[in-house]
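User:
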Amino acid sequence: MKLKITILGVITLMSFVLTLQSCVENDETDSIEITVEPQELPATIAGNADFKFPEQQSTILGWLEDRDTVKITKHAWGIWQGLTSKSNQVYNEDTLLVYQTWLGATDIKQACADGDSTAGCTAGKSSLEMLESPRQQHHTFGTNVGENVDLDDNLFVTVSYDPNAACYATKNMIMNQSTIDSKMNNSGGIGRIDPFPNSAVTIKPTYYLGKVSDKYIQIPAWKGPPSNLEQEYDTPQWGSFVYADVTNSQPTGKIAVPTSDSSDTPPTSSIVNIDEFIHYALDEEAAAFMNKQQGAGSVEAGDLAILVAMHVGTKEISNWTWQTFFWTTDPSTPDFPSSTWEAGLKPTNLTGAAGHYAVSTAYAMVWPNQPVEGGTNEGVTPIIGYNPYLEPGLSKFNNYNRLDSTYQYGMQSNCMSCHAQAALNRDSGFFGYTGDQYIDMSDTMFNGWVQLDFAWSIHGSINKDK
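Assistant: Predicted structure:
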């Protein structure tokens, strides 16, 4: 009888596991591979009665007409809750967050190159996304000042598409240059790709890497912008750090005080548990990919990818909604480009590591909100919205700013304005970034280009020979 119960228990357990993840037999290796099935952003959030996704465009445009930043911010927090909620997918014995189940731009690029129009709609993935430098250069992975501390001021990113965006992308072969060429306006006017569906979401998670073998990992900590915004202000210029304790030996919920001390023995007040960050351990495949970029032996399986920032766009309105999230030392009083009042709108049931991030929104380029076409930069107020870990280090912009000619740096930018510039031509040209201003999507400056529906990820992933 015991044997029958044991066998039944095993069968039941196996059945339960198979509901969480798919298993595929690899004929070459005669092994079983686990496939993660991408999960959609939840349409509703338990304990957040005001949130639904996708929201009606007319509703969001009403918020913009009323300049209702409270409803905008609450919606952004609901999106964050959905992204960071637990999925029903397991990888390496860890339950993945919803956003971690999504296909990456590299997956979609390969599917487009292969001509697989259904991959974005049906394919899963067998690993988490590979991390790459956000710039076209390679960095050394960390420099130890002592055996206890891992110094690493290098950002690594991935871009991922939710199942709706991924399905659209492969159905339309949107990352092939031939598709872009087919959308060119042969009369010299503006070309446009077909728009993403209103349920589409694209994200840019941004991580710092830390060695698990070190007790503390030094992470640059944002303390707000400097008084002079007309400069590059990348993480090395901040001179402000916290230290993540990989052993989680600090009091739960401790608020770290940033320090300029980069010694081997950081002040206790600046140490915070690693569990105050969303993070995961690199597997063998991810480590091998990083070593190919950074040099052999730079990382090893088990080293930690620590989420410090994430850009999020949703196609709920024509120009997409834009919200960006960044880790902050005290989530109740984050510095600009977030604020205490925005933190005060955070849902009370958003706790744990996900509750340690701040929000900044850019659902419009300027106030009052302008139409998609035919608006103005006259008599408007700028909306500044950027992520401290991504934009402040941007170089001087090379385009004309119709709102304010001094807006030429990352801390003077707006997510929507910048993504409006996403465009390609037959030469895979780069249209350029911009500081905050209203961008008219019918502006003649786009003549001869194909607008990419605000998706810089297409520009960065184009298959030029396809």
